[in-house]
Amino acid sequence: MTDFFDLFMQQKKYNRKIRMAESRSSEEWTETYLLGLVSEVNEVLDGMQWKRHRKMSGLKPDVTNLGYEFADLTKYILSLWELWGFSAEEVLEFVQQKSDTLDELYRQEFDPIPSDRLIVITDLDGTLGDWRKTFVFWAYSAHDISPLPDGSESLQLDSDLAMRYADYFKLKEEFESSGQYKHVLLYPDAPDFLNWLKHEFDAYIIAHTARPWQRYHRIWGDTWDWIKSNGLPIDQLRIGADARIILASNIGGDDVLMLEDDPGLMLRAACSGVRVIARQHPYNSGVKHEKIISVGNLTDAKESVQNEYAAFRKLRTTEATR
Q1: pLDDT for residue 314
Q2: In angstroms, rounded to a whole number, what is the distance separating the alpha carbons of residues 127 and 113?
Q3: By three-state DSSP, how is residue 279 classified?
Q4: Residue pair 18/101 in contact by the 8 Å Cβ criterion
């Protein structure tokens, strides 16, 4: 039986013969293949007699004909992959990554968040990983750009680096689209603190980040790779900024702990009755609230967390001794 790699190479050879006979840009050939897909989809629909008010009673779709139509659809899809320079191995890799993402999204949408465990909602950038330092190092390494030292006076990194916003925006687009989130420097105390929460309280840990994964779909996979490679015991990954406040509020302040560095989100959570452990930065030093514990090292928050969530710790200890 012919395998996928043979099929891909056969389609590639055929496409090259066709494209040698007619010179078009990649964009024009993309339009051609997409229009071909639309045409084949229409043929499948006709075979399914989608106009139900005209459907002939008892007439079923011809399965063999459907097979040929699906083959045409597949060949157009393979042509799009090949046109833009993807190899057969890369096709399978992208499809696998997409399948993994959909599986995780499905799990998050339909698997309930435990109601009897401490729920920890943690930010990533600025809380578990130093993305600012990572960005500056990358800008210097990749483009020999040496901005002013980052004083972390605000959340606007471009202002702190004294960079023109247009230049910063271009660099940030490249940073995100080239997979640099896989290389964000980890704060050394982060894995110890999360693993402590998991061990002491059987915490259910949800990572919440505002990274623009809808703009660059690879960010989801890059982020999960970073989480796994650093041994972080995270159960879910969610995207969004303010959404984490709604999630924490719906769970209930007594059952949730938030790890955050954004001063606005810290205060919103605290005002919603949620305990916040805040990693100290100059840009959040002015935020004060009885529900916010600011620490230079997450490990310094252990005693406060033990006292605040003693009931969960007792439950965890009781279950362990059964």
Answers
A1: 65
A2: 22
A3: strand
A4: no
